[in-house]
Amino acid sequence: MSKPSIGFVGLGAMGFGMATHLVKQGYPVHGFDVFPASIERFKAAGGIPAYSLRESAEGKNYYIVMVASSPQAQAVLFAEDGIVQHLPQNAVLMLCSTVSSMYAQSVVAELQNRGRGDILFVDSPVSGGALRAANGTLSIMAGASDEALNAARDILQEMSDESKLYLVPGGVGAGSNMKMVHQVLAAIHILGASEAMGFAAQLGLDAPVMAQKIQASDAWTWMHENRFPRMVEEDWNSGASAVTIILKDAGIITTTARQQRFPTPLCSTAEQIYLSALLHGWGPKDDSAMVRQYYARPLSEASVSPAADAEAATELVLDLMRGVNLVAAAEAVAFARHLKVDLSMFHTLVSQAAGGSKIFIEQGLEMIEGRIGDKAPAGSESVDQVAAKLETVVQKARDLHCPLHLGNAALNVLFMTQRHGSGAQSSTSVIRVYGQ
Amino acid sequence: MSKPSIGFVGLGAMGFGMATHLVKQGYPVHGFDVFPASIERFKAAGGIPAYSLRESAEGKNYYIVMVASSPQAQAVLFAEDGIVQHLPQNAVLMLCSTVSSMYAQSVVAELQNRGRGDILFVDSPVSGGALRAANGTLSIMAGASDEALNAARDILQEMSDESKLYLVPGGVGAGSNMKMVHQVLAAIHILGASEAMGFAAQLGLDAPVMAQKIQASDAWTWMHENRFPRMVEEDWNSGASAVTIILKDAGIITTTARQQRFPTPLCSTAEQIYLSALLHGWGPKDDSAMVRQYYARPLSEASVSPAADAEAATELVLDLMRGVNLVAAAEAVAFARHLKVDLSMFHTLVSQAAGGSKIFIEQGLEMIEGRIGDKAPAGSESVDQVAAKLETVVQKARDLHCPLHLGNAALNVLFMTQRHGSGAQSSTSVIRVYGQ
């Protein structure tokens, strides 16, 4: 059986990988991009070049939008001579860009207004980075009508790992909300990776050794593991994941949080530090370059301290990440719960995706299941204990004149939790400070 | 009656003013500094040069220490051939540097240990800037034994404004604690002045016009009024008040807060942004240079927008300062209360000193007096209303890609207050989120 033609717009780092993967799977993919060079590159990789939105959309029963933002999506979808104008009846339109759920829902309304309610629209953001895009092993979070989900399922499955296509209940918007709460963790952990390694450098620790210890410990985050090689190589112009990209996602989170009047102190802190970096010209660089906001020289130039100090110093870095990852998990779970996101699916998804951390996998699950007990059970830490360790970390960073934006913000959240009477309770009780 | 000789160490921006003012009042002041040029400058201004600590201390019944930090104080007081070794019996020793109360108390203990319990030690930090130091109109917060306070009173009064010598109950440490909680406001308002003016520039507002409107409104802070001229002139090498100075004070606050496990989200945010500036080489600059962390060019280069927009934009800047100043007042009052600082004196002091703001003078007093009511009284704003305005501000800054560190931190504190059920209450109820 021959595979259906697919229209595709947005051949950037992610989109190029997704589109060429579909080509490899035997789909005729008609790809368009605003940069002619990207179209030629796609052609060279076996894709069918489309030299206009019209050409990419005409006669295509399946269409994938992978542009960088909702303003771009709005333009390619609804501009004169845009995609919607040229899609055939009952075409399946998959929006894979990261947008707010509000924007995704507005697309449905605008399709109706334009008399194109026939189009089967799927809100299907992705996660996993350029490599997984190219391998067809992305995580995809799809929300839509049952009819649209059924129609889009096979193609979404081609682009995602066998176990990582999430059909999120709740219709259009639910996919984007799922992606958004995932990005709460991503936005914090990306900065967290830089904060940990910058602090380690200020402590005089050897970066590769420290990174290995983080990866082997309960301080592990997917982002740290993924970003560290580029961070230490200063491979900051690869186009893999620019500061502007995570900044955009953080903006979707904090804008939605403001509409919901929901506190996101850690994610907001991260966003502000990304914004500061943007102001000083770091926007187009890989987000692992954020390490320069903590340590002014290359990580490889950190002087390596003697082994005796190194052990205690290593523990400080691990404690930093543990503390930050714990509060990050609380912030993400509390926000997800507030938005009525399917928490069990959220946990499964994050645990296997870019927002994952050891702490989220374990303590995040306890938070989701409401196992936050009145007293810290034997063998588990209390809020007081986590705060005490993070206090030592923050003081040490202060003594070294090392900024520690997330560490400080997390510690203040823990202090607030203590002030509201939950200090002796298990560390997962920090979620209580985010309200009901 | 001839005036007594005074020993003096620390002829920096503040110390030079204080010492020469005492000279003008007829005191023989023997001044020492580690920089020989400062001694010569003091000599040229009519002071008596001392070329060693010994020379400055021998035979002096009154001694004033105005070095920059507690490590420096420790060195000049207790080093071999240091001050304490050479002071006569029952000398009055005034430590005017800003230090932690813990450090001030440690001096008393060390005097005892060294058999110099006879020395009348006064913990007497000052506030007001170099100009007031030179005019003898500083605010001084003195804590000591009654005997020491009585002995030091006349000289402290010479250096302070008639109404601004505060004899703080509680002995040694109480002066430093009073100064510290004052500095909570100073540390936030210094960054707040830059944040407001940087945001105004991003909005295309004319800086002098905006500054005037702030000064004429309930968004006024002493720091904004004081810093704005240097900010707009980019007069950043005057030595008036370097980033490192407020960073040191912020460090005293957050270190003490950590020991007390007390949350200081706004002050910590400010400290982290000062630390970031330090990392990038801004430490020695005047703290008004922090505006560059919000707007990358001189304020004078901001393009002036048409008058229609300007009115709404101006209101956004005022709302930013109102929101931040409100949470700053809550943070300072809550922390002062926690430390059992005399709140009535605290209010009087701040209202006339560098930490002052219109919001603190009014809403701060309501917080101190416990007038935080169950419902916002007619004519006053609720937490919900302040949060709603700040939300608009923060969103606008985000749209402009303008960092807004304090605005975001303050908004998250307000959201936490709402999540804990105080949204409909008067805005001063934000203090509740800081706990009992």
From TrEMBL, chains A, B:
Q: What is this protein called?
A: Oxidoreductase
Residues annotated as domain 3-hydroxyisobutyrate dehydrogenase-like NAD-binding: 173-293, 316-434
A Pfam family of the record is NAD_binding_2
User: PANTHER family from the xrefs?
Assistant: 3-HYDROXYISOBUTYRATE DEHYDROGENASE-LIKE 1, MITOCHONDRIAL-RELATED (PTHR43060), L-THREONATE DEHYDROGENASE (PTHR43060:SF17)
Among the GO molecular function terms of this UniProt record, one is: oxidoreductase activity
The record lists the lineage as: Eukaryota, Fungi, Dikarya, Ascomycota, Pezizomycotina
Which residues does UniProt call coiled coil? none
Per its UniProt record, what SUPFAM superfamilies does this chain match?
A: 6-phosphogluconate dehydrogenase C-terminal domain-like, NAD(P)-binding Rossmann-fold domains
Residues of the signal peptide: none
Q: Which InterPro entries match?
A: 3-OH-isobutyrate_DH-rel_CS, 6-PGluconate_DH-like_C_sf, 6PGD_dom2, 6PGDH_NADP-bd, HIBADH-like_NADP-bd, NAD(P)-bd_dom_sf
What Gene3D superfamilies does the entry give?
N-(1-d-carboxylethyl)-l-norvaline Dehydrogenase, domain 2 (1.10.1040.10), NAD(P)-binding Rossmann-like Domain (3.40.50.720)
Residues annotated as domain 6-phosphogluconate dehydrogenase NADP-binding = 5-162
